[in-house]
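job 3f2a | input accepted
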Amino acid sequence: MKKVCVVTGGSSGIGLSIVKLFLAKQYQVFNLDISPSDFGEFCQCDITQVSQVSQIINDIAKQGAIDVLVSNAGIHFSGSIENTSEDELERVFNINVKGAYAAVKAVLPVMRAQKNGAIILMASDQALIAKNNSFAYNLSKAALASMAKTTALDYAQFNIRANAVCPGTIETPLYHQAIDRYCEKSGTNKAEVHAEEAALQPLGRLGQAEEVAELVYFLGSDKAKFITGSLQVIDGGYTAQ
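job 3f2a | predicted structure (241 res):
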């Protein structure tokens, strides 16, 4: 029987690379996302609706074990605290934090019963450092880092591991959309902005979604069975400066 991996937000970017890699490793992969995808078993889901997430994961669990959960769904938002409205703050937290809460809470009874499981939360280098105009996003990613640590301690007795992956600047469709918006507002040349972003990284380039997926796969595998409660940085050296 194939091992089972559940991924939230697996239809694009880092999430899609994670789905593809676990499929290549012969996992049965369920993708919970609002946007359809041809990869994995697609489950249309609004991650902010806790009961909906719980129902879908309970249905998946009826087929057998859930070996790995990758809570990846998230959004970015730019703005200082003064430039972040209450509605915007709520939206970021509903998707980034409440969505992770919903997924993690739903898989824990399954993993506890089978006395095994790996949970990977997609945090950010901003769980470790601050960046300008990133109040709500920064706050949400720090919350995910905390969620990984507390879950790791509470469920270690059941052989359930929880870790957070903390990517730096990764070249994804969302990255390009953010750069495009910035260039439209500022009139800056996109190639120049892209080169400047790459130059900010000690390794001199942006990360790739496939590289993040490899780290996630490792953390979900038995090769990482003594790693729990950790924040795994993959940022080209950015936070080491």
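job 3f2a | The two ends are 45 Å apart (CA to CA).
job 3f2a | closed
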